[in-house]
Design a protein that fits this description.
The longest helix is centred in the first third of the chain and has 26 residues, at 2-27. It is elongated and about 115 Å long. A hairpin with a 7-residue loop joins strand 5 (306-309) and strand 6 (317-320). It is mainly alpha-helical. The protein is built from 15 helices and six strands.
């Protein structure tokens, strides 16, 4: 009898051992998904609900192992969208959901784009983005004020950058994030510029005017090294009450981004027409980047009042102090265009 009891105990021990080993093996197994899977955990989801989501998405279907891991780690599972890579253990999967670091889509917004151009970049990641709603929000003064802006629209306040937008971001979420990035740059740059006698902060007076000038600087040159010099020319013109004479401001009025500018457009009575009216426009014509903003605050010291594109393929400009030299450079630019076949704008 004693031998039978010992054998029985040994068998139970073996069963327990192999059972424990089996459960441990199941708990330590890797998730079933062979590719990254995007899942959404709704607010208020219980651990049971999370298991159902994992199972439905082909990530994990062993309920016993799941319950044991949850009991062991007691994770605080958070709502949101999560990207689950392949080859994760169940503990790693739950750690991702517990982290609260939701899945994002990275989108790069280039410098100098007008607000109505930006959806074209966003739609690659957010094909359902509503351009009409986007444009309405951009032009809504109440929405601008709700974001802490003293402006009637968001034009100029959408900082160009590479953004990690939430996977489920809508038009409002994206705009808020871009404006917040702009205001962060504002706080950083103005904290220094307001105390620096070498800056033009006092001359410009407020952030809206800084962005307004920076947007023209951004549109006039694609060369970062030229931006301070372009800004210097514009500051010189403003100081003697001379029109900025910037063609991009006319293009903004008519959304005419390329090609010739017609005389009828140059005669526009829009306050954005700096070929006709003195001083800064009512607001930015595009969304300037940090370098253009810095150039507006810290322009190069120059006596130049004019500049014209060389049109020789260098993407740079001739600068001059007087109209006579400016006209000479215009003639050279015209000859360069004839050689290169570039269109006359």
């Amino acid at each position: 009898m004693k031998k039978i009891l010992l054998v029985f105990v040994a068998i139970l021990a073996l069963v327990a051992f192999f059972g424990y080993s089996s459960v441990n093996s199941r708990m330590g197994a890797t998730a079933q998904n062979q590719d990254s899977v995007l899942i959404q955990i709704p607010k208020g989801s219980s651990p049971t609900k999370v298991f159902q989501i994992l199972k439905q998405n082909g990530i994990w279907d062993d309920e016993v192992a799941y319950k044991l891991v949850v009991r062991k780690s007691n994770p605080s599972l958070k709502a949101g969208w999560y990207e689950i890579p392949k080859g994760q253990s169940l503990e790693q999967v739950l750690a991702i959901i517990e982290s609260g670091k939701v899945a994002v889509r990275k989108v790069t917004i280039p410098e100098g784009r007008a607000s109505w151009e930006i959806p074209a970049y966003l739609k690659k990641a957010y094909p359902k983005l509503d351009e009409n709603r986007w444009n309405k929000l951009v032009q809504d003064p109440r929405f601008a004020q709700s974001l802490g802006l003293e402006a009637s629209s968001l034009e100029g306040y959408l900082l160009p950058d590479t953004y990690p937008f939430p996977i489920d971001a809508d038009e409002e979420t994206i705009l808020k994030q871009m404006v917040a990035a702009n205001l962060k740059v504002r706080d950083e740059l103005t904290a220094k510029a307001s105390k620096d006698p070498n800056s033009k902060w006092k001359t410009l007076g407020n952030w809206h005017r800084v962005l307004t000038l920076a947007s023209v600087v951004e549109e006039e040159t694609g060369k970062p090294d030229e931006r301070p010099l372009i800004a210097g020319v514009f500051h010189n013109r403003l100081s003697i009450d001379m029109p900025l004479g910037a063609d991009p401001t006319v293009r903004f009025i008519f959304k005419n981004l390329t090609g010739p500018i017609y005389k009828s457009q140059l005669n526009s009575d829009s306050p954005y027409n700096t070929r006709k009216f003195k001083g800064l426009m009512p607001g930015p014509i595009s969304n300037p980047g940090r370098k253009a903003i810095t150039a507006a605050l810290y322009p190069a010291k120059t006596t130049a009042l004019y500049f014209v594109a060389k049109d020789d393929g260098s993407m740079t400009h001739f600068f001059s102090d007087n109209l006579a030299d400016h006209n000479k450079y215009k003639d050279i630019a015209a000859k360069n265009r004839a050689k290169t076949g570039a269109p006359q704008l």
